[in-house]
Amino acid sequence: MTRYIGVDLAWSEGIDGWRPQETGIVIIDDAGTVVNADGARGIKNIAAWLHRNARPGDVIAINSPLVITNATGMRECERDLAHSYGSWQVYASPTNLTREWTGGVSLRDKLEAIGFVYTDGIAPVAADAISFFECYPYTTLVGAPEFGYDEERPAYKRFDLALPVAHRREFRAEECDELLRKMKRLATSTPALDLSTHPATRPLLGSRATRDKRQKRREDLADAALCAWTAALWSRHGLERCQILGASAVPDQQGRRPVIIAPARAEQREGAVKPRKRPKPTAQHRAGDALLSAARAIASAADSSDTARYKEARKKLIAALETLDRSHGLPPKGHSAVVQPERIPSREAHEEAH
Predict the structure, then answer these.
(1) How many domains, the chain?
(2) Which of 216, 233, 268 is the last residue of a domain?
């Protein structure tokens, strides 16, 4: 039975003088069950982990540039990605031979040395080969309708600069929570991904926003699971659900093309008429989004009768209102006196007020 492996390679891999951060790795089977979820540090250890755990016929999707041939500028696949997914605010950092982050290339070399096969999605691969390809999770999120990101990529793994510094980490964590709630739907999709089936991924579905290093592990495992699901989607549906970005790129001396295999909607494919680009969000738009998020958080906390969450959500709502004031050039007002009571109102008081 084919299994699907996702590798979210830490961006610091391959940079001299940098201590490698943890790389998330997730394996799912054909039914969507998570059979392994772990982390590893350093290219040598990551390759060794995959060597121990991968089986003939497995398909691996790696979130990192694997083939780099251009001396400057960006790769053709990154240019194609911007063209196809830019309307959804998805772009990739330019990769070339002058960049330091070449951990993916080093990992590719080690995997090929132990018999794994790099695939560009064009040349056929033997059924019993352990193959691997490059993916980019943001294209999965906006390219697969299952996630519901029909207009724009989510803001997880990014700080909202419109928010006060003290609230940016919390907002980032809440965006990750929202993504994981959407990923929960995949348990009944085709292909499936059921995060509840493994002790390492099960807590992702119920954990609350955190502000410490555990948040990075949550994001790493979420991205690794997305990569694994992308491998399953490509393996089972091929070009029906995915496209090959950079397919016309010139191969390197060993015949490897630098490509990204990405889930795609019809309107994201080459030659399709792209949606009209939305204006870049202004400070007022970002502040409004933060205010909406805060309002949802305070409503959710009130419904759950969780006093600690309610107080924290109230602080966030006040901060969002102050940010909105500043975005309009106004001095922050005394919102703490008018924004919701400090304690969760009783159901009777709530009904009477409404």
Answers:
(1) 2
(2) 268
d(CA 100, CA 293): 37
Residue 347 has pLDDT above 50, yes or no: no
Assess if residue 349 is contained within a domain.
no
278 lies in a domain? no
pLDDT at position 350: 39
How many Å apart are CA 28 and CA 231, to the nearest integer? 10
Selection from 8, 5, 84 nearest residue 246 by Cα: 84
What is the tens place of the pLDDT at every residue in 34-43? 999 999 999 9
The answer to whether position 196 is within a domain reads yes
Same domain, 57 and 109: yes
Separation between Cα atoms, residue 58 and residue 319, nearest integer Å? 48
At 349 the pLDDT is: 43
Indicate whether 257 and 290 sit together in one domain.
Answer: no
Contacts 24+ apart (CB under 8 A), 147-155: 147/179, 147/182, 147/183, 147/185, 148/182, 149/88, 149/182, 151/88, 151/278, 152/88, 152/89, 152/278, 153/88, 153/89, 153/90, 154/178, 154/179
Range of the domain at 338: 283-342
Are 95 and 149 in a shared domain? yes
pTM of the complete model: 0.77
Between CA 199 and CA 208, with CA 204 as vertex, the angle to 5 degrees is 130
Q: Is the pLDDT of residue 49 over 80?
A: yes
